[in-house]
């Protein structure tokens, strides 16, 4: 997919995967992926009948470590899923990079600290 609802939200192209592709990569039923989105373990964007999930949310081992906790902290702080997606992919010079890049490179403590500060 080239232009997606996620790209429109975050302001630049982001590689996305379908729920079926997420299910295959995680080796779980597609219904489990839908449940993970509802529970805040993953975020996705619905485009018509299809859902897209940023590929950056997944590793070879599963969901990026620290992502579910970060999503939960921000949801508890009143942020919408769209706002969380924008924040996760927004470049931050002080990290450096985007929060999702920091999570992927095992710098989750700093990302979670910032999420907690934003939520208050």
Commentary on this structure:
By secondary structure, this protein is mainly α. 50% of the residues lie in helices and 9% in strands. It has seven helices and three strands, in the order αβααββαααα. The protein has helices spanning 5-10, 19-26, 30-38, 67-76, 81-89, 99-104, 108-119; strands spanning 16-18, 45-47, 50-54. It has a three-stranded antiparallel β-sheet. Strand 2 (45-47) and strand 3 (50-54) form a beta hairpin. The longest helix is centred in the last third of the chain and has 12 residues, at 108-119. It starts with a helix and ends with a helix. The mean pLDDT is 90.
Mean pLDDT: 90
Q: Which sequence of strands runs across the widest sheet?
A: 1-3-2
Count every helix, treating DSSP H or I runs of 4 or more residues as helices: 7
Number of strands: 3
Structural class: mainly alpha
Radius of gyration: 13 Å
In whole angstroms, the N-to-C terminal distance is: 36 Å
Which residues form runs of ≥5 with pLDDT under 50? none
Q: Name the helicity range.
A: 40-55%
Order of helices and strands: HEHHEEHHHH
* Backbone shape: globular
The profile of the biggest β sheet is:
3 strands, antiparallel
Question: Beta-sheet strand percentage?
Answer: 5-15%
